[in-house]
Amino acid sequence: MTEKALRLGTRRSKLAMAQSGQVADAVRRLTGRPVELVEITTYGDTSREHLSQIGGTGVFVAALREVLVRGEVDFAVHSLKDLPTAQPDELVLAAVPTREDPRDVLIARDGLRFEELPEGARVGTGSPRRMAQLNAYARGRRMAIETVPIRGNIDTRIGFVRSGELDAVVLAAAGLHRVGRSDEVTQYLPFDTILPAPGQGALAIECAAGHEADGLQVAAVLAELDDPVTRAAVTAERALLAALEAGCSAPVGGLADLLADGQIVKEMRLRGVVGSPDGSALVQLSTTGPVPTTHDEAAALGTELAAEMLAKGAAGLMGERAL
């Protein structure tokens, strides 16, 4: 008798299907059970409006969470940076697997690096965070660029460069890696140029609290895929975002990483940035602390940095704060 397949809820995009497929393979190896991908269309996928106009936070995850709660799928895979910072009581963030490369990358015409872009270059991005930091970096180098708001999947965005409509676009390295298009990257942007979105490069595997699938405790099984270092890092980053009362479409960058002395890990560092869209003002700070061993310790790192950033005027750079 064939075992009943576990149902994995996923968005329909090529990237979402690729990353969900990777998780499905891991769950098959863990359980020996077949895993079926259930494609769900979210509001963020169907709307043509800019994310900040349609709510930003949660527009890519609400539909997936609804089918989880109704028991129509057994678990779901999200890009963690799309998740609202408040976790619903009825759902469990069962696993945060090892993070992919969190950097942003440039894909430019003629293989150009950012510093080589021509005067007045048009650089496309759908992210206020990227706009703020790119414009600030360009100002510091006395470059004149125009950041152009865009939407669409990876193919669409790269297509703007290939057609000549834009000189370059900025995308997440992780997404390009997952769909096998890393060879199109012309520059990996260093963190001192542009900090990623909190949670960028990480996946979130979510299920309903207490959910069983034919006797299988889903959360307990998925927990085997959790990477403690990645979870601690993204917990700190998301606590920063939450304490700033900012959503995933706000101009906030954050990255937690481990600081080592040789082979010995000493501390966790958290860097944060908030900027005005034109790059004329940035609040950029960092803090370090002992490597967190609990959720509360990781979250405290983010909360403390947010307080310092707010004291330096971060709230005034975020526009209308998400409540």
TrEMBL record:
Gene Ontology molecular-function annotations: hydroxymethylbilane synthase activity
Entry-linked Pfam families: Porphobil_deam, Porphobil_deamC
Complex and partners: Monomer.
Protein's name according to its UniProt entry: Porphobilinogen deaminase
Stated family: Belongs to the HMBS family.
GO cellular component: cytoplasm
GO BP term, pick one: protoporphyrinogen IX biosynthetic process
CC cofactor: dipyrromethane
Reactions accelerated catalytically: 4 porphobilinogen + H2O = hydroxymethylbilane + 4 NH4(+)
Phylogenetic classification of the source organism: Bacteria, Bacillati, Actinomycetota, Actinomycetes, Kitasatosporales
Record EC number: 2.5.1.61
Cofactor note: Binds 1 dipyrromethane group covalently.
